[in-house]
Write a structure and sequence with these properties.
Elements (H helix, E strand, L loop, with lengths): L14 E6 L2 E4 L5 H20 L18 H25 L2 H6 L1 H18 L1 H4 L23 H10 L24 H14 L6 H14 L1 H4 L25 H10 L14 H13 L5
Antiparallel strand pairs: 1-2
Helix pairs in contact: 2-11, 4-11, 6-11, 7-8, 7-10
Length: 289
């Protein structure tokens, strides 16, 4: 590396005296526009530090002369949105579910609000499209355990299923195997009969034996024809729609150890208008009665 400055013969510009592999570094000053832009940015940064919240402190931060707060701006935006919606929310509070469904303007508002509330509060179990998972009901079909009209859906949302609310929907299926109410062979026969109700069985002789046991042990809740009972939350066993799976092993497991899914009560967690919007939305998904 050269230790003295010289003039580059090609460009006529003084070099810095640095040279790498025969390449000399030219001592070109920065363009004036670049320098002025840099100075302007420095001034802007200094001004920003003064007028806006910028510096973190031990327990807070500098507030700046303008006192700007993104949290306060968000709160104002939310308040403006609530004010804009208040006329509809007041009408929903005062209306019945049937009246909301009959008023197209309110219905559109309730469906939009219900879709949003479902995404925040319900999709974690029922899925973003409400198709459910194993143990979590599909809300798009026409199969309901506790009833699918507006009032029934609203009641379920309000008080839940086997929740800690005093008015929750509650009924439990006996664990016929765990509690030794039926033998393993009897459970197997009942499973075959249950599967035969939806034309899924394969052992006619076992199903015939299971029909007798079903009439004695299961028909009080599921009804004699296996059609289910909304009042008791007993599923319809004839439609081949299964909450916990419809193969032989899943049915045997249900009979042996019972099932006891739980849905929380949303009353007290959500306001009445939001629950109404949810009921309207769920009812609209395609399976509402």
């Amino acid at each position: 590396m050269a230790d003295h400055k010289e003039i580059d013969q090609v460009s006529g510009v003084e070099t810095t005296g640095h040279e790498w592999d025969g390449i000399r570094e030219l001592n070109n000053p920065l363009p004036r526009w670049w320098l002025w832009t840099f100075y302007a940015c420095c001034i802007w940064a200094l001004a920003y530090w003064i007028v806006m919240p910028a510096w973190p402190l031990i327990s807070s931060h500098t507030e700046g002369f303008l006192g700007y707060s993104s949290r306060a701006q968000l709160a104002k935006s939310v308040e403006r949105a609530r004010d804009a919606q208040s006329v509809y929310l007041d009408r929903i509070d005062a209306a019945s579910l049937e009246q909301i469904a009959a008023d197209q303007e309110l219905l559109d508002f309730a469906l939009a609000g219900g879709r949003s509330a479902f995404a925040v509060n319900c999709s974690q179990c029922h899925g973003s499209g409400a198709a459910g998972f194993v143990g979590y009901p599909n809300l798009n079909d026409d199969d309901w355990i506790w009833g699918g009209d507006l009032d029934a859906i609203s009641h379920t949302i309000h008080f839940g299923i086997r929740s800690d609310h005093d008015e929750t929907r509650f009924n439990e299926m006996p664990a016929y195997g765990r509690d030794e109410l039926l033998t393993r062979e009897e459970i197997d026969d009942v499973a075959e009969y249950v599967l035969s109700l939806s034309n899924s069985g394969s052992d006619a002789a076992a199903a015939a034996r299971g029909e007798v046991t079903f009439a004695e042990q299961c028909s009080a809740c599921h009804m004699e024809d296996g059609g289910g009972n909304y009042e008791l939350g007993a599923p319809n066993l004839r439609d081949a729609i299964w909450l916990y799976g419809g193969d032989k092993s899943a049915v045997v497991e249900s009979i042996t150890n019972s099932r006891a899914g739980m849905m929380p009560a949303w009353t007290g967690r959500l306001d009445e208008a939001t629950i109404k919007k949810l009921a309207i939305y769920v009812h609209s998904l395609g399976g509402g009665e």
